[in-house]
Amino acid sequence: MPGFHETLFPLDIALGAAGGPERATEIVTTLTGREERNTRLAHSRRRWDAGYGVKSLAQLSGVVAFFEERRGRLHGFRWRDRLDHSSAAPGSAPTPFDQPIGIGDGARMVFALAKTYGGAHAPYVRPVAKPVAGSVRVAVNGAERTAGAHFTADPTSGAVSFLAGHAPPAGASVTAGFLFDVPVRFDTDFLEVNLTAFEAGEIPRIPILEIRI
Asked: Around Cβ 192, how many Cβ atoms within 10 Å?
């Protein structure tokens, strides 16, 4: 059965990968030259090539072992995006006030982590399903809450659950800060390795694709 393994792709290799977000936009040009544009996906999908991060035969061997344990494309795993893995601005540590995740109503106990991009025209809200364990900080109406005493954060789903007696009151803003990984899988069942070419400087292709959990 396909599943998800809560394990992180080798970080030293991931930090040297190339890739980023991808959208699926359909464009139809009319006879007058006007365009009609539509998107088929509500969320972007990120993809990377991890081959750029492989610098030694030891690293390459580690990737092969990781690939085999995942059974190629069968099982998902965690990926650390060096460009985008925090709720805070680059170079800053996460704070409990970084990202809005909901408004309390006095009864709601569970809020989903998310990260918002932009704000002036059409903000994009990205679901965050794989926060780094122990990194989640939460505030209600600007007052930080204590993990374990007021809330818990599930690192496998991104759900923030307030404990009994601590539901955010009606109208209260709930914000959070966190580090996070991306759920991904290999985008190939064939990992081609040419040791001769590798030693000569050719980088093997190791495609990685974001998945929805």
From this structure: 9
